[in-house]
Amino acid sequence: MAIKVSPSLLAADFGNLATEVKRAEDAGADMLHLDIMDGHFVPNLTMGPPLIESLRKLTGLFFDVHLMLDNPEKFIEPFAKAGADGLTVHLEVCPEPEEILDRIGALGKKRGLVINPDMPVSRLKGHLDKVDLLLLMSVFPGFGGQSFIEESVERIREAKELIGGRDIDLQIDGGINVGNAARVIKAGATNLVVGTGSFRAPDMKEAIRKIREA
Ligand code: DX5
Ligand code: ZN
């Protein structure tokens, strides 16, 4: 599977979002990772559907929307309508995720499921048949710029094994940079979310290329 890089807009300059989206596009981003935080599931607030709707007018990039919300079920339709292409929900708040994944799929969007670093990968067993993208957090969600949790490499291997022959994109999110990209790709990650390591790199295009080819 070709390696994809999904720059996280959280690390962009929020005062110049139109320029920043263009910069990600020009730098060769495969998709744009949009972190939605509610101040409850995670101790931070970011953006809502109106902002996504405005960004939608600026680019054709795939919008990879990561929902860090206590109640994602209330926001599937609003984000889909605003222009999300993929919606990823946390197993922590959707312990039986089949129904919400079905709703995402019925809207024609890619179905994503994510777990935090402290949830055993084995908990995903039995929940992978309706998933297009499996995300493993390699930091505790809430903030960009945190250090990669090294144990995540082993968790990627475990998840890859669970995925088996299924057509699922294995995404990793948190602290990814040129220095650890090779390790996560070797372990089986096919999709790398990169915030600080892309938007705040001296040369975003160069950083994305190096990470993809790591
Ligand atoms: C963390 C977010 C990440 C974050 C990644 O809560 O889910 O997507 O933006 O940023 P970096 O790459 O800086 O760790
Ligand atoms: Zn994220």
Number of strands: 8
CATH fold category name = TIM Barrel
The CATH superfamily is identified as: Aldolase class I
Structural domains: how many: 1
Bound molecules: D-xylitol-5-phosphate, zinc ion
**Which bin fits the share of residues in helices?**
25-40%
Instruction: Write out the strand line-up for the largest beta sheet, numbering strands in chain order.
Output: 1-8-7-6-5-4-3-2
Structural class: alpha/beta
Shape-level CATH architecture? Alpha-Beta Barrel
Largest sheet, strands/sense/barrel? 8 strands, parallel
What is the molecular shape?
globular
Instruction: Look at the structure and give the mean pLDDT.
Output: 98
Low-confidence stretches: none
N to C succession of SSEs? EHEHEHEHEEHEHEHH
Q: What would your notes on this structure say?
A:
The protein is an alpha/beta fold. The chain has a single domain, classed as Aldolase class I (TIM Barrel). The chain has 8 helices and 8 strands. The protein has an 8-stranded parallel beta sheet with strand order 1-8-7-6-5-4-3-2. The protein is globular. Zinc ion is lined by residues 8, 33, 35, 66, 173, 193.
Summary?
The chain has 214 residues and is an alpha/beta fold. Helices cover 31% and strands 19% of the residues. It has helices spanning 17-26, 49-56, 76-82, 98-106, 152-163, 181-187, 196-199, 204-212, and strands spanning 4-7, 32-37, 63-68, 86-90, 110-115, 133-137, 169-173, 191-194.
Topology (elements, then pairings):
Layout (H helix, E strand, L loop, with lengths): L3 E4 L9 H10 L5 E6 L11 H8 L6 E6 L7 H7 L3 E5 L7 H9 L3 E6 L17 E5 L14 H12 L5 E5 L7 H7 L3 E4 L1 H4 L4 H9 L2
Parallel strand pairs: 1-8, 2-3, 3-4, 4-5, 5-6, 6-7, 7-8
Helix pairs in contact: 2-3
